[in-house]
Amino acid sequence: MRKNKLIFFVNHAAFFVSHRLNLALKAAKDGYKVEILLGKAASNIEEKIALKTLKQNNLKYKKLPFKSSEVNLFRNFYALFVTFFYIKKNKPDIIHLISPKAILLGGILARYFRVKGIVLSISGMGYLFTENENLLNKIYKLIYMFCLSYILKHKNKKVIVQNKDDYRFFFNKFKLKKNEIVRIRGSGVNLDKFNKINIRNKYKQVLFVGRVIKEKGVKEFIESVQMLNKLKKYKFWNYLIVGELNYDKSSKFKKKDIENWKKIKKLKFLGYKRDIYKYYKLSSIICLPSYREGMPKVLLEAAASGRPVITTNTIGCKEAIINYKTGELCRVKDSYSLFKSLSKFMDNKNLRQYYGRNGRILARKEFDIKKVSNHLVKIYKNLSS
Fold first, then answer.
1. What whole-number distance in Å separates Cα of residue 66 and Cα of residue 184?
2. Which pTM does this prediction carry?
3. Which residues make beta-bridge pairs with 268?
């Protein structure tokens, strides 16, 4: 009996491994022939480790000539051309499209080749929706929305969103039926691992996990650290930034800015770390002052770790916590608001532990990676039946 072929189409290997590896392994175990289409790396360090992981798990992949944040029309058409022949040759039954550029390229071809079923994972609307609204950006956004309208006319599809704002947007904008869209809060967390972290701890450390790019709120985090450093009562507190420093994106910071920030006392840039489990363990507060997200995995892991969260009152982030129960929200792009929230948590150990316990309860209820993977594989089966 022929196995159904499932192709994942994603921006790059590192994102796939961190967010969808467990799903691919589950699908393969359940009888799907799994292959992965990958765009160009945004971080060579992350890419090398991710490709090694795919090989170790016997997952077949192909690299394609597209970059997630690139808007060069010629290169995007070339990527579309290469992908055209790959899909024509491999004839997938299901294509799971992950990340905006993959949705654009893969979705157009899925309709053209009448692929039996497509899944669109909306893990965020991409840099077009977080960059400044200049004329060129508006034009690209219009093109992107036009292409999405074409893609979402596919007869056998499932749109997966991670937050209520994106659910309302896609449901209303593209006139979807209720059975064509579902909200799943993130890509899941390995609870067996993170539940081992003790909620009670004496560490005086704030942890930021994310790529060192503007839209993650790095600048605001650093400015709030500088404010905290001026107060003697926080002299024993330290601040860690774990994430790729040289991420290939237009919103990355200049090297001289990062070098200047490295001189700030009690602030450490650790760069990309393959396994950040120990950094959750050694921290008391997790902070992500992002401008917009789908459903940030770091905040799901923070909840599973029993750590209180400070994040921004914006799409995606605000749904990753229960405000005043597992974490608190500060204003977007507001260093002083972030400073005040950090101060509150740093001053009150009992509050941190209370939020941490509630976060763990939330993670068990909503963020179990086993539940997420089972739900998605069930979607594949419904589309391919």
1. 27
2. 0.91
3. 240
Q: What is the pLDDT along the chain (385 residues), one digit of tens a residue?
A: 678 999 999 999 999 999 999 999 999 999 999 999 999 888 889 999 999 999 999 999 999 887 776 666 777 788 889 999 999 999 999 999 998 889 999 999 999 999 999 999 997 655 555 555 677 777 778 888 899 999 999 999 999 999 999 999 999 999 999 999 999 999 999 999 998 899 988 899 999 999 999 999 999 999 999 999 999 999 999 999 999 998 888 889 999 999 999 999 999 999 999 889 999 999 999 999 999 998 999 999 999 999 999 999 999 999 999 999 999 999 999 999 999 999 999 999 999 999 999 999 999 999 999 999 999 999 999 999 8
Number of residues that make up the chain = 385
